[in-house]
Amino acid sequence: MGHTSRRKFIQQGSLGAAGYLLASGMMRQAAAAIPSVPSSMPAILGAAPRWHAGSWVKWPMWKQGEDERLLLDSVRSGVWSRAKLVDQFEAKWAEAVGAKRCLTVVNGTNALITALNRLGIDAGDEVITTPYTFIASVQAILANNAMPVFADVDPATYQMDPASVERKITPRTKAILVVHILGLPADMDAIMAIANKHKLIVLEDACQAHLAEYGGKRIGSIGKAGCFSFQNSKNLPIGEGGAIVSNDDAFIDSCFAAHNLGFAYGTSTGAVAGDSFMKASKVRLTEYQAAIGLAQLERLNAQTDTRHQNAVYLSSMLKDIPGVKPIRLYDKVNRGAWHLYSFRYDPTAFRNLPRARFIEALRKEGLNCSGGYKVMHTQEFMRDALQSRVYKAFYNKQETDFAKYKERNACPQNEALCNSAVWITQNTLLGSRQDMEGIAESIRNIQRHADKI
After folding, report:
1. How far apart are the C-alpha atoms of 116 and 114, rounded to whole Å?
2. Is pLDDT of 150 > 70?
3. Per CATH, the architecture of 69-294 is what?
4. 37: which of 148, 245, 284, 322 is 20 to 30 A away, CA to CA?
5. Full strand arrangement of the beta sheet holding 340-345
6. Calpha distance 202→176 (Å, rounded)
7. For residue 274, which phi and psi values (nearest 5 degrees)?
8. How far apart are the first and last CA of the chain?
9. Does an H or E element contain 223, and which?
10. What does the DSSP 8-state code read for residue 286?
11. Cα–chain-centroid distance for residue 385?
12. Domain coordinates of the chain in residue numbers?
């Protein structure tokens, strides 16, 4: 049966069944169960969308009954502050990442803030990072009163360009904050070589890179420390939550004290029940959060394999479409986490169809996508930081002049990327190979009809 006749049949049959479905309260469930029929015309021009709201894996995933045992036990126990379940999750996450130790905190932002603080980053220091990242990476540097310095990106991989990193090093540079953006590993061999040459600290922002692998090592275990986020959209979702991992016992013990009001822990000075010995905060994870995390962790490895396989398959099809350039992985990447799938869009191959309109056309097909990040260093939060008393006290007038700061940190490759990238959400990559083929065909279809869109 052809697409047109099948669609007519479904429409006629639906009229006869509508009264029964309305009476039985099953209309919503039945609508989700009937697959949409793709058309030779894009949905934005009035055809049926390729996917409906229930086509993709709901995120976050929660299996009633199966996932709830630990959570209910923890709530019913009355032990809600960190205890054995948090310890258990930390041990399992350290093992999963391939690190010796793990400390959980309330979110990925505070993981970065705490790690930078215990690595000695302070006012007057410069930290080199990427401009193509979520704002939390930069806010964590600012929270420690350090100066964010932006290295430009590799336009093919979206990761920070090691050559640009080395050009940005000054006598005040103390650390490199590597962000494995979209869940894909940066060029860690080159970055570690630069750090070793200049005696710099490397902190991995792996907040999007759960179980990604580079050179046989899990991301987060290569630098001095790695930080993760378990926010609701992440590949391991808890709602909120974060973690610091490291092979350095003294560093993690110091982070533990910092996340618990400065009370000493392990190799840090003093006793656990003794007086607080450092300026600190309290950013501890709860037992019920750990229970959710333990349930999610059970399926993360298999989901990561599925995302990687689907992403590679999708890229193999998209690379042949003019005007579509899939993101490239470095040769030593064994597996990507693919928190986001991305490609660069060239409107000239689509009859100058603007990117915003192209994204709208994909959304009409039932695909959850966006244009991604905006240019970071020109945003007003940077002006606010530079005008604060602490920055004026530790940095000179030229360094705190916002106009000059924007000039020094201009990253043309990043700006071009911000204006051309298209993102697809990670739960899409948990679909079938047929779904990946459908994404490629939808893009081809939009291209064929670009003059009408």
Report:
1. 6
2. yes
3. 3-Layer(aba) Sandwich (3.40)
4. 322
5. 324-326, 340-345, 421-425, 369-370
6. 5
7. -80, -165
8. 29
9. none
10. P
11. 25
12. 69-294
